[in-house]
Amino acid sequence: PANGRFHERIAQYMVQSGDLDAAHRTLVRAMAIDLDYRGTLVSLIRLETKMGRLESALRRANIFIKQHPKTAIGHTLKGDVLSQMNQHSAAAAAYAAGLKLNKSGTLLMRRYLALRKSGVANLPIKSLTDWTKQNPKAFDVRKFLAEAYIDAKQSDKAKKQYESLRESLPKDPDVLNSLA
Fold first, then answer.
1. What digits encode the pLDDT tens for the residues 147-163?
2. How far apart (Å, rounded) are the C-alpha atoms in residues 149 and 144?
3. Whole-structure pTM over 0.70, yes or no?
4. Residue of 91, 166, 161 whose CA lies nearest to 131
């Protein structure tokens, strides 16, 4: 059928079954049918990244950014591709651009990891602590912060973070194991 979204769903099933090449062909076909549906382009970029077609994925991510300049999705995808290419400083910059458009704990954590992998000496732990103060129920970021404290050799702060998490998540195995 001449419906890009239909082809995108078919491609998702192909990915699940492990036929990545067929999924790629199907997504390219879906793009030709429905150029305006951004979900297909996002799926295609993610698939190309997974397949190791990083130059193509990066080119498409840049196209997405130009087509949708007010959304963080393109910057996130670009950062993911650049991370796969071991261009961590550039990935951190892409995530930072995404953060300007959409404050997101996930983007904040990805930026932090990219900076760490790029060898930045003074990692921005403060950005994580600020986020957790403003978003105390962002448990994923709070766990991430605890691990960041451990990496920064600040075990006392990590322990306090995990103890605080235990109050909110008394049965969480990650929290309990970290305190054991």
1. 999 989 999 999 999 99
2. 9
3. yes
4. 161
